[in-house]
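Narrative of activities, Objective 1.

The group set out to show that a structural description can be obtained from nothing but a protein's sequence at a throughput compatible with the screening campaign. Below is one input-output pair from the validation batch, recorded exactly as produced.
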Amino acid sequence: MITRRTALIHLAAAGTGLFVQRRRALAKASQPSTPVNFSIPADACDCHTHIFGDPARFPFWSGRTYTPETASIAEMKMLHRALHMDRVVIVHPSVYGSDNSCTLDAIRQLGPRARGIAVIDDKTSDAQLDELHRGGIRGIRLNLETFGQTDPAAARRRFQTAAHRMSGRPWHLQLYTRLAVIQGLQDQVMAAPVPVVFDHFGLAQASLDVGQPGFSVLVELVRSGKSYVKISGAYRASTRTADYADVTPLAQTLIAANPQRILWGTDWPHPTGAPLPGHNATDVAPLLPIDDGRLLNQLPIWAPDAAVRKTILVENPARLYGF
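Output recorded for this entry:
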């Protein structure tokens, strides 16, 4: 299936000039070209961003699946000024493995308006978890999709281990995975001692609509209050090249199930998550050219009620991330 994200990856590949080094030096992370067309409430939060720092200071992990262009804190501040976002959650990207230094540095620079989601491994001690909490971390991410981990049984084992590590902490588990895996985790999510958050519509595809296998499970988990879902990165689900309108039924169904368990995010600066066609993980993969103003302007279509939008943009993040 050719998704919007796949098409954009190929577009990025066509524009790289065969990865000449000056491309990286000149590249800038995307900024909105479409103005926000509705009122954004105070303390609104972008719940899904990444920072890619200077590789000389924050080296990439040797096991990464792609190499992004840089995306700085200054560029992210510009983004949020344009979108009228006061708060941000920085999700630790897979390219750094379990070294959370870049994410922690960004939170430190941004201060009280920022929180973060970390990646840990089996060598991460409880003392290190305490240190991460002091640095603004409020959860850990299991990134299954980027590494092609689609076996529900393996996902269950990783989920159980991570949930045990989080028990007793004011944290949550964030999963980047597909609907088939979410379906396989349903009973564990319901029994989890901490909240569970699913990224990017649970990777539902707009072309398959609300009846696609596994989507009803995601809806029920949201309805139960046991899990949150990020209606983020709509371009990942959409096959539309202009407005992402085909994502509307997915978003509206999730919001109707339980608006108090919905989070919004940009997914800025829009990494590919994989090497471009014909290239290796160590080749620089340009960031995707997404208009975050256009993305944000879908929210009043998905949630016409301003009070519901405030719940999504302000109240839910404040509760989950402890702003």
